[in-house]
Every structure is written in structure tokens, then in C-alpha cells.
Amino acid sequence: MDLLNCIKEAGIVGCGGAGFPTHVKYAGGPVEYLIVNGAECEPLLRTDRYIMKHLGDRVISAVEAVGEMLGAKECRIALKKTYTEEIKALEKVLKDRSSRVKLAKMDSFYPAGDEQTMVYEVTGRVVPPAGIPLDVGCVVSNVATMLGISDAMEGKAFTKKYLTVTGEVKKPTVLHVPVGTSFETCIEMAGGTLKSRYFVVSGGPMMGTRMTMEEAKTAVVTKTTSGILILPEDSSIARKTQISLQHMLNRARSACIQCSYCTQMCPRHLIGHPLQPHKIMRKLSMSGDMKKILNDKDVRNAAICCECGICEEYACPMGLQPKRVNQVLKGALREAGIRYTREETVYTADRNREGRKIPAGRVAARVGVMPWYDLKIDTCAEGTPDRVEIPVSMHIGAPSEPVVKTGDRVTEGQLIARIPEGAMGANIHASISGKVVAVEKRIIIERTGG
């Protein structure tokens, strides 16, 4: 079986973002650059750093194989200059293998791991608005995705996930657990929480999914889970999440002072995209009705927001939420059937871009997670839960179709849900051996003694 089919059969999806099926991403044809994202975009996460430091040989073997498959002229692992131990470990592997893979050492800024920002940092090329890296001859994949491909090359399906558990827990750590493991189990593996009441972020503090501790009790690890962050229930992140949509819109209409800092510091604006959040906020305040302004050119540019959060967590002096406004506008544009159309022009980065890159440490301080920013996490715990709940939809594309039924016995790595015929999706495999006890939106498997 060729490598592309190995990746498809193993159910590999992008581990650093929304879970785009990797076999689809790689089917676009030859590329000039294969860029492997090791920048660990969000503050506090240590997953990719652990993988690069301890599993670098497997990562680089996959990079070499994928680079050859794609016909890439250049293969680069992009990471931050401050990752000195990870750089040392990777450079040793590269030397021992006489590998053609090179390291691209970036400044420590946020969001260095944003796909389109990274393409510009490594190649100097601007991915056009609403475009993909392939538009400029590049493919970007996460370090953990490459680790999954390394497993696929050995005939192993994607059934386990590395993730960071940190914040208000007793033993912040990296975990390696079966897909479908409950957040509760992961938190217990990190020694439990330090507070009786807490707030949870799945992912990083800037772009992660935010949930109450009650909501987190039903959450499970998916193929895209990169971290679980435990915060105080009265943290600034928790308080902002509780602001109602209507109150947020009222504040946007009444308090925006049109300083334009949100635009000046917007990472996508700085690489030349026409996104200008301050204009969106102005037109929202003038109209008072979101639906009436959907046909406005500036408002339609909300569709190209990457939702990094710089605008509201760092730039806005009034504490407003341009990112959340853009999120709401994206939904309204989709509902109205309005698709983004870019102008045919040459996009160039802002000449002030270098001076406006935001240091990662400042972002951590501003968002209120500085107490855990400098934690050294270099341990990994293996999880062996007795029960997993595996969602049939944890990737971009159609939900996978179950091929098992309640009562079936399955073994770890066995196919339990497949890509629907003619659709984009990803295969899903049992992450533990046991008995299938439910098949709905989640396939639930319980480990059995036999």
C-alpha cells in the first residue's frame, strides 16, 4: 500500500487545528515546501515540544517520507528559537540520519503557529485571503500529525493522542491516552485539580474551546485535542465567556473608540489580508443591526479572520471582543449564503509587521495565564481507561459511518467507522479492546476482562 493510502486507512487528520483529513490535504499534487508546524502556537501547551524532544526520529522519518511523496524541494520543521532543548534533540537526529530536512527557527511570538503566518515566516510568501498554503506551493502539517504518519507507516491506526494537562492541577504533565478518554480521567492523571470549582479550556487559552466544569464532565479527547487547561472559575477567560451575545454587541456599539489597534496588530492584516476589525466594529455601531450590514465589503472580510484573539485579548484598550463579533458574523454570512470573494491582486505584508509581532510571554500575561507560562513539563503519563467514548465526527467533513453495532467485541486498532462513500472524512478505529455498548453520535467501548 502506498503512503497516501496508508494515511487514509489509518484515519490521520490534522492534529494542530480543525482536523482536516490528511490524505485529502496531500492529494493536491507536488509542492515546493513541506512545512512541519512545531511552533506550539498557544501559550502553556507543551505537547509538540515533548514530541520533538523525545520522538524526533519518528517525526523526521515521516517528514522525509511525506516530502518524497509530495515531491517537495524543501522540508522544514518550523519552531521557535527559544526551544533550545528541542532544537538540540532534532539537530542530533538530523545529523545522525544525514537528513535533508532543515529547521526553520522563528521568533517567539503569537500566533507563530498560525498556518498562514508560518508560511510567510518560512518562505516570505503570502497565502491569499481565504486561500490555502497550496496556493503558494506549500503544505503545512503539525508535528503530532507526522508522528501519526510514522505509526501509519508501521501499519498502526490513529488511536491515541498526546496532549498537555496544565493550570490548576497538582501535576501538570503530557498525557498519551486513547482517543475517547474522558477529560475527567485526564485531569485525574494530572493529580486532580487544586480547586473544588474550576473552568476548563480544551486547547490553548487564546483559541481553545471554553467550558464550565459541568460541561467538561461530558467532554472526551478527540483526534484534535491538544491540551486541557484548568483555570480558576473567576479567571478573566471565564468571565469573558459569560458575557452574553447581546451584551457584547451592545458594548461594541457603544464603547468602540476607533483606535484601530485591533487592525494594527491583527496577524492576518499584517501579512496583507484586507481584514480590518475596527471598521467592522464601526459599521456595527452605526447600523445597530448585524443582518443589515452583511453585504458591506468590510464586514464580509470577517470571513477571513483566523480567530487568534489578539484583537480582544491584547489589542483593544476598551476590553471589547472583535474576535467574537467576527465569529458571529461568520455564522450570519454562512446562514445568508454569502461566500467570501477575494480581489485578484498581489498581497504583500505590512512594512510594520516585524515591529508589531506580539511576544508570546506578553500574550500569556495579558490573558491571565502567566502563573503557568514558564512551567517545565517534560513528563508523559500513559493512560489505560476502562471506557472510551469515540465521536463519529471529530474532523472536517462528513461524520464517519459506524461499521460496528452494540454488543460487538472489538480490538484496539480495528475499524469501527468509515468514510461515507463519495464524501470527505476520516476513518475511525477502536482505541481500546473491549465491548461496544452504544453506537450513536459516540461509539462507546468498555474494556472487558476477556
TrEMBL record:
Domain of life per record: Bacteria
Q: Which organism is it from?
A: Frisingicoccus caecimuris
A Gene Ontology molecular function term of the record: electron transfer activity
Q: What is the lineage of its organism?
A: Bacteria, Bacillati, Bacillota, Clostridia, Lachnospirales
The 4Fe-4S ferredoxin-type domain sits at: 245-276, 296-326
UniProt-listed InterPro entries:
4Fe4S_Fe-S-bd (IPR017896), 4Fe4S_Fe_S_CS (IPR017900), Ion_transpt_RnfC/RsxC (IPR010208), Nuo51_FMN-bd (IPR011538), Nuo51_FMN-bd_sf (IPR037225), PduS (IPR017054), RnfC_N (IPR026902), Single_hybrid_motif (IPR011053)
Protein name stated in the entry: Na+-translocating ferredoxin:NAD+ oxidoreductase RnfC subunit
Q: Name one Pfam family in it.
A: RnfC_N
Query: What PANTHER family does the annotation carry?
Result: ION-TRANSLOCATING OXIDOREDUCTASE COMPLEX SUBUNIT C (PTHR43034:SF2)
Q: Which GO terms describe its cellular component?
A: membrane
| Record SUPFAM superfamilies | alpha-helical ferredoxin, Nqo1 FMN-binding domain-like, Nqo1 middle domain-like, Single hybrid motif
Keywords (A to Z) from UniProt: 4Fe-4S, Electron transport, Iron, Iron-sulfur, Metal-binding, Repeat, Transport
